[in-house]
Amino acid sequence: DGIGPARDPFASARASLDGVLASSMASDALATIRGDDLPLVMLDSDPAGSLGATTVNLDLADGMRQVTEHLLALGHRDFLHLAADVDSWTFDLRAEALAKALRGTDTAVRRVAAPLDVERARVVAEAALSTPGPRPTAVVCDDDFLSAGACKAARRLGLRVPEDLSVTGFDDLILATAVEPELTTVRLPAERFGERGMESLVAVLEGRTPDATPLPVELVVRGSTGPVR
User: Which pLDDT belongs to residue 164?
Assistant: First the structure.
């Protein structure tokens, strides 16, 4: 309707909808739906903040664990975490999982936040890699767009990937194989994720208990990671 706030699509939700399948919905909108007692399934959302709604999640913590173990096995001990500059449970979870995976290891990790945009991520990564002191040997990124930005930053600084700097991503988007070298990244089963969400919503509508087990993810090793020189 042009400019200004959109009309509330859930004002009379119960009259027109049987249920809602939503991803990372804002808490105020979630409260509106729950107020209508509308069956709801949340994708990629904090179970503790779901107001009783069913949640379907990926095992993101295990994905970050796989990334960390891969890099540690390659000899990396100085990490840069290029985090998504987004206030979201899914990205908070990745940061917590990375910190937990590195706990007790002889490593250093520095975190900088960047927008989910290749060029702006490049600017942030370039600044982080140019700061005085020991340069990180591995950049762990929350998303493949951030990883592409990190690779561009490395090239501008005259660093080779992976000879001088290993870079990892998260999601395994088409972008992951469009860059050179191709990205080592965590593959998220997007289609299965959607299927599980719909299965869970049908279960809620039929009065059954949905499967709450997080869906497994897989580290795909490609050319952007290598051993420390």
Answer: 97
Residue pLDDT, tens place only, 72-131: 999 999 999 999 999 888 999 999 999 999 998 899 999 999 999 999 999 999 999 999
Per-residue pLDDT band for 1 (boundaries 50, 70, 90) equals very low
Residue 219 to residue 216: CA distance in whole angstroms: 10
What are the phi and psi torsion angles at 108 (to 5°)? -120, 140
169 pairs with which residues across the strands? 185
Give phi and psi for 80, each to the nearest 5.
Answer: -115, 125
Model confidence at 10, in pLDDT bands (50, 70, 90)?
low
Domain boundaries for CATH 3.40.50.2300 within the chain: 60-187
Q: Specify the pTM.
A: 0.88
Q: What is the mean pLDDT of the chain?
A: 90
Topology, domain 60-187: Rossmann fold (3.40.50)
